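Severity: low
Component: inverse-folding endpoint
Summary: output formatting inconsistent between runs
Steps to reproduce: submit the following structure tokens with default settings.
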């Protein structure tokens, strides 16, 4: 059995030293990863694996919604997108529907890529 404590320590350190922008990117990456695992669960007819990972994506979406800053008008638009994605995740979990998860995955990838571009542009302006 491989000792993962070094990897866990590295990951912990990465999270503790990350900027808010980097943490947001990590959350998007995590949501994408868990969505992919949920799709695999459905393909493997592993209902528990699918359910557990859909719930993980839902929790990340809830975190994004909870941390929206409404002093910026765009927060309302993000909230609408997150609400839509969350609803689709619930539907995918009830139906164990791979196609719905693939749709959600597309949205998550687009949002992640947009966030990466925002981070890149912010560094240029510094």
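Observed output (run 2 of 3):
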């Amino acid at each position: 059995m491989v000792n993962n404590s070094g990897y866990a320590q590295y990951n912990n350190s990465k999270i503790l030293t990350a900027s808010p922008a980097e943490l947001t990117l990590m959350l998007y990456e995590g949501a994408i990863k868990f969505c992919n695992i949920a799709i695999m669960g459905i393909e493997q007819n592993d209902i528990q694996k699918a359910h557990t990972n859909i719930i993980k994506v839902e929790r990340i979406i809830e975190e994004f919604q909870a941390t929206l800053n409404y002093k910026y008008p765009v927060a309302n638009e993000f909230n609408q997108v997150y609400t839509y994605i969350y609803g689709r995740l619930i539907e995918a979990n009830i139906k164990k529907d791979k196609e719905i998860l693939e749709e959600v995955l597309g949205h998550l990838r687009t949002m992640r890529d947009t966030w990466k571009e925002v981070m890149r542009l912010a560094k240029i302006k510094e």
